[in-house]
Amino acid sequence: MTRSTAPGPAALSPRLPSPLQEVADDRFTRRGLRLLLKRDDLIHPELIGNKWRKLAPNLRAAAGRTVVTFGGAYSNHLRATAAAGRLLGLPTVGVVRGQELAERPLNPSLVRCAADGMRLHFTDRATYRRKAEPETLAALLRAAGAEDAHVVPEGGSNALAVRGCRALGEELGEHADVVALACGTGGTLAGLAAGLAPGRRALGIPVLRGGFLAADIEALQERAFGARRGTWSLDERFHFGGYARVPAELDAFAEDFTARHGVPVERLYVAKLLYGLVTLAAEDAFPRGTAIAAIITGTPFPPTA
To answer: Given CB 3.0 to 4.6 Å as the disulfide criterion, which of 111, 169, 217, 232 pairs with 202?
Structure first.
């Protein structure tokens, strides 16, 4: 089969390393803390933040083949993969959780995916839960007409992605004592922690309920590096009921943070991260003198002006 000669991700001129911005926020400064924002949302206007870091090595590995990946109806990862396909001339297929969605009008997130050329394949939730099983995956690829595809898992988290995210920790060097980020599938944290300088630690704020993420991150590090790497921990208190749950309190917090600092706050991940850090600061969870870097992994959808 003839492979595409589509350009690689570097042709899109990512802004790397991403900017590191210190903000003066009295909720931190009055406790002797510094708050830094690692602006991964500025890497590329369409392949934003950790999506770039996780997708770029997978797009190179695809070598022109169709890219198949997975997500729910509001998946940031599906949108990023679809955008990458359009920009690089790669065919993409998104396997979407929920067969019932096939009979409904597409939501704005899936409309964006389709507009970017992603072919959407809906599957029932029971099958979706088994998508990592070889027989189920093979059947899904056959049904989607993409048997020769490069498969990227839900959230983009595989060994390639984890190794790609190691650069995030390396970019921070000794600028921060604690590096915090919101976690979905854990791939970014797994790589970030491996790249941090000695004496630095990573803090993950899971956006899903369930308490399963620590084991998943350890497994990702095993596959990527052969063993657990770096110093990292999770605080499970700030999911606000689960993925895509944005109660009024969280929405108001995000609006206030934007008003204070001029940084658009994405709700599903970044708002929960920043809310968690403000809470932890109020609890005196960090010693005075600590520099905290918050990874800004995305922007609101639809994008704000």
So the answer is: 232
